[in-house]
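User: Before I run my own analysis I want an independent prediction to cross-check against. Here's the chain; please return only the structure tokens and, at the end, one sentence I can use as a sanity check.
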Amino acid sequence: MITKTHSSFLFVALLSLVGLHAQYGEEDWKERDEWMNTETLLQMADLSDGDRVADIGCHEGYLSTRLSKKVKNGRVYAVDVREDRLKRLRENANSRGLKNIITILGDYDDPKLPERELDMVFIIDTYHEMDSHEQILRHVKRSLKPGGKIMLLEKLKEWVRGKSREEQVRAHSLGPAYVRKELIQAGFTIISEIEDHGDWEREDSKQMWVIIAKKTS
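Assistant: Structure tokens:
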């Protein structure tokens, strides 16, 4: 029998294996700025100095460090399920003199964010890995201020386009239709979408898309 503890271990182990291929080190960040059109994402987020935001699935801090500079006197909660990644993130932040990043070791079904505090939550190329996505969205909603927003970016691989959610997830991919429905069911309102945000790692068979949704209650 697989217990919840064992399930958590297996989930973290899976993410560790995926991370061997999906993780980006410091040397890759500049290139990622270009192919992920990161500045466009930050403009869409419309952040202000003093905002409080979260980066779920932060890895070594690629997005967290960029968010840190945008919110300046605000706060960035950087969440991951692996302490080694968070340790590396802290090193990256310290080397840049970034003092407004707080790391959180999350659970596979709970990012452990503060309640009703955040202006925006970012989940970038991570949502498809969340088996407990319904619970995660509930926690995210509770963490947001009234009117707070969530941004999700995923890649849809061409060979699983039109397939079931399960088939897409097995391919480490996910289409916007599933996520749109899940956000609405969780009590969010879709306010902005980009169907084609470019090609993930410049591979034309992996189309990125973006959804921004707002907490409605």
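Sanity check: Helices lie at 4-22, 29-35, 38-45, 62-71, 83-96, 133-143, 165-170, 176-185.
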